[in-house]
Write a structure and sequence with these properties.
- By secondary structure, the protein is mainly β.
- It contains two helices and ten strands, in the order H-H-E-E-E-E-E-E-E-E-E-E.
- It has an eight-stranded antiparallel beta barrel with strand order 1-2-3-4-5-6-7-10.
- The radius of gyration is 21 Å and the shape is elongated.
Length: 199
């Protein structure tokens, strides 16, 4: 009897989820956005300038997928996955998977400005890997940043994002043979967001 009741509840659970309205599923002021962006980052390795566009010949480019969960009109959380796999010197790549809080600091009509602080992991393949003196590894990263989004409609918005990453445990080679530590990749992303649930 207990097994039969448990099986019946298991069958009915998905129906209960479907019956729940999106507003009540995420709360009165909450909203869930999903977005896709293209990113351009200064890799901070083998580059003489730390400006976001100061490494033009080796600027890393790639897609970013992310979500924004706004638990309140002023604060929420953001998670991102970025794959910078194009244009790197000697096949250099970087990727990161980060999550953290965000806070809205400005709103004017359809324009919103947010600040954020994300934590997570980053992966790097240095130039000319697996040649001697190159490396492939993963590192802890923390990244402050900011986002501007402009609501085109109730469901769609344009967004631009700047992020400055700190890799405090990194120690690795440059193509000139020197060793550097504590790299700080940074760059811009632009894309489109879609409101999946809520306000």
């Amino acid at each position: 009897m207990v097994r039969r009741t448990g099986f019946l509840l298991l069958l009915l659970f998905p129906m209960a989820l479907v019956a729940q309205s999106p507003r009540s599923a995420v709360g009165g002021e909450a909203g869930l956005w999903v977005a896709g962006e293209m990113s351009s980052f200064n890799p901070s390795l083998d580059c003489t300038s730390n400006s976001p566009f100061g490494c033009t010949s080796e600027q890393l480019i790639g897609p970013t997928a992310l979500f924004d969960f706004n638990a309140h009109t002023k604060w929420g959380a953001e998670g991102e996955a970025r794959w910078l796999h194009w244009h790197g010197l000697g096949g250099m790549t970087q990727a990161d998977y980060l999550i953290g809080p965000r806070y809205r600091v400005y709103q004017h009509h359809r324009l919103n400005a947010w600040v954020k602080l994300e934590l997570g992991g980053a992966w790097i393949t240095t130039a000319n890997f697996p040649a001697a003196g190159s490396l492939k590894g993963s590192y802890f990263v923390y990244a402050p940043g900011g986002t501007l989004d402009y609501h085109l409609t109730r469901r769609f918005s344009l967004r631009g994002d700047y992020e400055y990453q700190f890799w405090p445990a990194f120690q690795g080679p440059t193509t000139s043979g020197t060793t550097v530590s504590n790299i700080t990749p940074n760059g811009f992303s632009v894309g489109v967001a879609y409101r999946f649930l809520g306000q």
